[in-house]
Amino acid sequence: MVDFDEISARLLAETQEAIIYATRDGVIRFWNGGAEELFGFSAGEALGKSLDIIIPEKHRNAHWDGWDRVMDSGNTRYGSEPLNVPGIKADGSTMSLEFSITILKDDDGTIEGIAAFLRDVTTKWNEKKALRVQIKELERQIEDASG
């Protein structure tokens, strides 16, 4: 017989994708092995802490403004398309993250918290940035040659 509780627990714990759950107040209550690997904080270091530990300081106000809108309305503009944001690691270095969220509600429909599924896309983001720079340079060269 398949033990779905055991399979669920193993999937959450063993996936390489970072999975984080935070309650309405933005306090981390679930931090899997993928999150440990991605951010460099152990579960013991992250659990009970604010999401601020992974949000660069200059982005915190925007994050919390959006968080509060979601908590108040129950709606998010980040549906099926992943969101790209900067993140910060335990060592203070930054990275580019792509993530999706799931809003978790109780039986009455009240939001209990949000689960996020995150991955590091820094390499991909840097490659796209370099391509944009190259395109601008080529456009400038074409303009100079035709002008």
Automatic annotation (TrEMBL):
InterPro entries: PAS, PAS-assoc_C, PAS-like_dom_sf, PAS_4. PROSITE patterns: PAC (PS50113), PAS (PS50112). Residues 81-133 form the PAC domain. NCBIfam families: sensory_box. It comes from the Bacteria. Residues 10-57 form the PAS domain. SMART domains: PAS. Gene3D superfamilies: PAS domain. This is PAS/PAC domain-containing protein.
